[in-house]
Every structure is written in structure tokens, then in C-alpha cells.
Amino acid sequence: MNRLHDFIRQRAASGNISLADAGEAATAFHRSLMEVEEQALLLDIMPLRYLRNGLRCREQLRLLQARVAVIGCGGLGGSVAALLARLGIGRLRLVDPDRFEEHNLNRQQFATVDSLGRPKTETARTAIRSINPAIEVEAIVRPFAEADIEAIDIVVDGLDDGGKRLELAAYCNKLARPLVHGAVREWHGQAGIATARNRLLASLYPNVGQGSDSKPPMNVVAPTVTLIAAIQAAETCKLILGIDSPLARSWMLCNLLDNVFEHIPA
After folding, report:
1. 134, 137, 64: which is closest to 96 by C-alpha?
2. Which end of the chain, N or C, is more open, meaning fewer C-beta atoms within 10 Å of its C-beta?
3. Is the pLDDT of residue 140 over 80?
């Protein structure tokens, strides 16, 4: 380990280490790129890819050591996953049984003409590896199960159905995992942090049976998806860093047609 530390220090005269130098260290010392970046952060040396995050090394290390599950990798989930990868969340578990279809092209982060017919999670994993090869990404192509969140710190709701959200919230409550909720419809969206204490999902979907299909698929425009996904990614980051957020005590309703943003007590 001392030799690795010496190598990192030699290549980080400016207090940062580049991807190329970290990759060279990984090869030379038979370590993963994540391990090299972790050791750099422990030495108070920032990987260059994270410099513009504006975080301290110990904060960036907390992100790198975090484990986040994104349940549903369509519009919201795909966009959240991409943002979390850029932030430097070290371990992402992506769960979705679906494949990309042509009607996904208007709003879903990893939906392209070339990805049509391919599993959403596997496509996302490939794309995320080109965004941030230092992190670990697990792609699960099936409906979510309780086991998917057992070894996880935070769960992100990328689902599109109220009944499935209630089922996911029940698993999160049982295992004491915070659930970063988001939902979109046309020009409207909502976001909040669901916990066993506030039971946010139960209050938002009071007349939906757990695990049942609540409504047909909704129309939604890309700006709504991008906005709510950005809020979800920011809330996930704040949870990891221990930064207090109003969305721990309320949920946000967004109306992009009238530019109205409202906080409602959870």
C-alpha cells in the first residue's frame, strides 16, 4: 500500500490525480480504479473527475463508498443513475425488467435508436461505464424484490406505478432504508423522501392496492423528467453527506406550465 501511496503522491503534485494516472496505478498495483481513487481520497488527493463537485475529499469519499439502488431505469431512474455516476456514487444497483421501446425516445436518458429492444439496466450499465469507469454498476433485468435493497444504503424510486411504489416503500420501511421518491406526469412532477416515520407514499397513493397496477402509462415531457430526476439525485447526495433537506419533512409539487413549486408537509 505504501508504494501505491507514493505513486499517487508523485502524480498529484497539484493536489489532484487524473484518470490516466489513476488507471496506470490500478494496472501497476493490481487494484481496481475505485480502490485507487479511494486511496487518493484518503490521502486528501481529489480525483480530477470530481474536482468541480466542490466537495472536500472526505465528502467525496463518502459518496464513493455509498451503495444506492435505482428501482426502475426508464425516464426518472435512468436520468438519476447518470447523475449519480457523475457525482461519484461508488456502487449502483439498477433494477428493471423492461427493454427500450420507441415511445421511450422522447424522455429516457439511455433510450436511443441503437438501444431499442435492449434491456434498460444493461444499456444503462454500459453507458455509465463510459461516464465513470471507477464505480461499480450492477444491472438486474427482472422486477424488483426485497433482496435488492438489503445491502443498500439508499433506494431511489424510478417506478411509474402507484401500487408498485407502495410495495417498494413497504420493503424500505421494513429494512429502514430511505426511499427517494419521484413521479412525473405531463408538465407536473413531485418529489420527496419517504421513511417509515412519514409514510409519504401511503399518503400520496391512499386508494391504490400494494403491488397492483394503478393507472395506464402517463404522458410526460422530457423537461419534467429531467427536473424531478435532478431533485432525486440531489436528495440522494444530501442523504449520503448528512445534509438536512426540507424534503425530509415535506414533499415538493412542481408545475412547469406555470412555474409553480410548492412544498407540502409530509
Report:
1. 137
2. N
3. yes
